[in-house]
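Please review this one.

:::
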Amino acid sequence: RDWYVWRNPRPTDWVVFGINPWRVDTTGAYYGPFWDQMPDWNLLNGTVVNWHQDNLRFWMNRGVDGFRFDLATVLARSRHQNFEAEGSFLTALRQDPVLSQVHLISEPWDCGSQGYQVGRFPPPFLDWNDQYRDAVRAYWLQDLPGRNHRAPERTVTRGDMARRFPDSGTIPVE
């Protein structure tokens, strides 16, 4: 049970995607904003954080050289579900000698009350804004080779400074 976000009693003043994201169970309520069968991980629990780091290392050992986190703000929630850039999971990734050396990309939109978090993820995270995501999606789904290649022109950000993909196709890391 401590692997997930639980409250007892169920909070009543929350709205995510038009509904209360706290799902009632026989022993309280779990936080599940996306689906009632998908409770959020309790990333304030060190054992849960270590388990996720081990999963990322599993994929690195198979050749993956970076990770993109959709709705990355949920990885940095406080006990009250507010975004915290120094949250335990993000801090653990940044301090890990192996995971901190790979590409870590956050898509910083937030379904919670704090909204879009562009520029709030600490290095080495890079943020993919909506324009970049949409351009990549359009390229793979619609654009033909040799026509209208917009993706390399879109930005990846860190803080309030925009970065562009260099011709080599790699993400610049300071």
About this structure: DSSP finds three helices and eight strands in the chain. Helices lie at 46-60, 88-95, 130-141. The radius of gyration is 18 Å.
